[in-house]
Task: inverse folding
């Protein structure tokens, strides 16, 4: 049975922008976040407290989060979250007043090494004190697992391996685990098989789908996992984005396309289609990128 409503997590300002080679000003990022909230988003991943040597585009994480959490640029009722891969990132995020962070692991050893410079086991050891310290501060922690439907270095990934990492994050205290098809190679049957395996260890109510659209399968995969109880979907306005450590990977599924799909299925969200389409039109012009949302382009053209 399909859910009555879906919570959308907008990852455009982080996942959507992190791989952009030319610097985007902090003001543009904040304007994007503001427009996303005005389009109805209630959960926006806005920054990433990672090394600026690894991901230069996210180097202004302090400025972005301070503006949102301390300087009145955030809207009431909206959750603004940030990635924090280690204690150094978490401490900086705490100084900025964040109330939600995310740790990010992978179901593939090679990807873990390339992305965060350590093994899966080491990453889990590193995340445990991050989750503990965050929760002591009343900060909610989300967990990500990358490469759930394939790895750019290792190819196929066993669903059991995804389940093991998801379960470790869940047991550590993450309130939700987001399952990342980092390179968008999944197809609906594989997606359902993977979810079935994970849901044996982590209740589906605590899982989210984070599907990139590299092979054009993300909407089909989402329609499939919605049938299996997924109620939280990560997406990026205009389909912006890509992961710096997954060559050729394109953006997340576009928020506009997800909203259009959900409306068609009679599933409620807080996001307004016309407004989010306008945001996609604006940001793609502002940063000189093609709009990868079919629904967004169609709505704006109407
Ligand atoms: P490392 O080199 O192993 O860490 O990096 P280290 O502790 O040895 O530190 C090395 C240097 O980094 C030091 O600076 C630290 O201060 C600095 P130096 O002394 O050389 O000048 N450093 C930091 N600076 C700022 N903030 C920090 C921080 N930590 C260390 N938090 C680290 C480990 C994880 C930091 C590094 O590998 C890194 O930053 N990786 C970037 C990973 C990343 O951002 N990937 C993209 C996001 S994940 C994603 O897109 C997937 C997802 O969307 C889901 C999906 O689609 O599958 C979530
Ligand atoms: Mg991603």
Result:
């Amino acid at each position: 049975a399909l859910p009555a409503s879906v919570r959308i997590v907008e990852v455009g300002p982080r996942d959507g922008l992190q791989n952009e080679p030319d610097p985007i000003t902090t003001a543009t990022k904040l304007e994007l976040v503001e427009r996303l909230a005005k389009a109805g988003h209630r959960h926006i991943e806005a920054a990433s407290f990672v090394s600026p040597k690894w991901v230069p585009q996210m180097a202004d994480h302090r400025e972005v989060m301070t503006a949102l959490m301390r300087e009145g640029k955030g809207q009431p009722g909206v959750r603004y979250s940030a990635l924090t891969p280690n204690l150094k990132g978490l401490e900086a995020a705490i100084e900025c007043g964040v109330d939600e962070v995310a740790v990010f692991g992978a179901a593939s050893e090679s990807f873990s090494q390339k992305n965060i410079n350590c093994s899966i086991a080491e990453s889990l050891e590193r995340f445990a004190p991050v989750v503990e310290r965050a929760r002591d501060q009343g900060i909610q922690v989300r967990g990500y697992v990358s490469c759930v439907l394939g790895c750019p270095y290792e190819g196929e990934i066993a669903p059991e391996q995804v389940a093991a990492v998801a379960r470790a994050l869940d047991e550590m205290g993450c309130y939700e685990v987001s399952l990342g098809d980092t390179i968008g190679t999944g197809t609906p049957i594989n997606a359902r098989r993977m979810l079935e395996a994970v849901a044996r260890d982590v209740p589906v109510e605590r899982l989210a789908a984070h599907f990139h659209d590299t092979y054009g399968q993300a909407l089909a995969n989402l329609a499939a996992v919605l049938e299996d109880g997924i109620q939280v979907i990560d997406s990026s306005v205009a389909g912006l984005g890509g992961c710096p450590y997954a060559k050729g990977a394109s953006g997340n599924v576009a928020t506009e396309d997800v909203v259009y799909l959900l409306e068609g299925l009679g599933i409620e969200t807080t996001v307004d289609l016309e407004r989010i389409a306008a945001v996609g039109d604006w940001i793609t012009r502002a940063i000189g990128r093609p709009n990868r949302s079919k629904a967004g382009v169609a709505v704006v053209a109407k």
The longest strand covers residues 100-106.
